Amino acid sequence: FVGKDILHSQSAQTDVEWLASIGERSLLKVTPRSGRTNQIRVHLASIGLPIYNDSVYGQGEKVCNQEFGLHHRRMQFQCFDTKIELTASSPEHFQPFLEKEK
Fold first, then answer.
1. What is the tens place of the pLDDT at every residue in 5-27?
2. How many angstroms separate the CA atoms of 96 and 19, rounded?
3. What Rg do the C-alpha atoms of the chain give, in angstroms?
4. SS3 helix, strand, coil % of the chain, rounded to 5?
5. pTM of the prediction?
6. How far are the Cα atoms of 28, 45, 68, 90, 92 from residue 60, in angstroms, in the given order?
């Protein structure tokens, strides 16, 4: 569920797959199955895996000036009769995790 409390929450589902870890940080493949605002951030924080440098749902403050630890790599959607897929390169600060995943 996503919301301030259970009575006012909306149903939401997020799939999480572990890819790699370095120390206490992990690279996850996260797929939201419903489209709720801040769904990924709320769900990961609720299971003890807050997004790195997330001052709202994370540890309460930014850890450093480094970028936010959430990246939207791929998006797919249907537009009339055309399937559209957009892919973005990973941010530079994700590279150590991506190298470890190989």
1. 666 677 889 999 999 888 888 88
2. 12
3. 15
4. 20, 30, 50
5. 0.72
6. 21, 11, 13, 25, 24
